[in-house]
Amino acid sequence: MTKPESLTTLGLTPFSFHADQPLFRVNSGVPISTALTHVSDLLHVAKLLAEDAAMTKHTDRYAWASHFLQEMSKAVIDDVVKVLASPGNSVCE
Fold it and tell me: InterPro entries of this UniProt entry (predicted)?
């Protein structure tokens, strides 16, 4: 059985596409617990920025910052899901 603390990101998930080319990619080898903790922080800040953008006039920069934080967060979560769903992983069984 695979120990959850031994699982790390695969580094297969790109994000921030420009002209159909990814500018960034999730790094491989990051413990998934660390990756998920970081994603939680990113999503918290994205939520705060989105609330500010919704409540205040002329806050495009908040909306765009929130958008990019959400894009990064989704890439990390998608990469972690790939790890957890991989055929050789028995953590979720």
Answer: DUF3077
Q: What is the rounded distance in angstroms from the CA atom of residue 10 to the CA atom of residue 1?
A: 19
Domain residue extents for the chain: 4-85
Mind listing the pLDDT tens digit for each residue in 49-93? 999 888 888 878 888 899 999 999 999 999 999 999 988 776 655
Contacts of 83 (CB under 8 A, 6+ apart): 7, 8, 9, 10, 32, 89
Q: Taking all residues of the chain, what is their mean pLDDT, rounded to a whole number?
A: 89
**Which residues fall within 8 angstroms of residue 85, CB to CB, at 6 or more apart?**
92
b/e sequence 38-57, b meaning 16+ C-beta within 10 Å: ebeebbeebeebbeebeeee
Task: Enter the tokens of residue 65.
Answer: 């910052």
Report the distance separating Cα 40 and Cα 36, nearest Å.
6
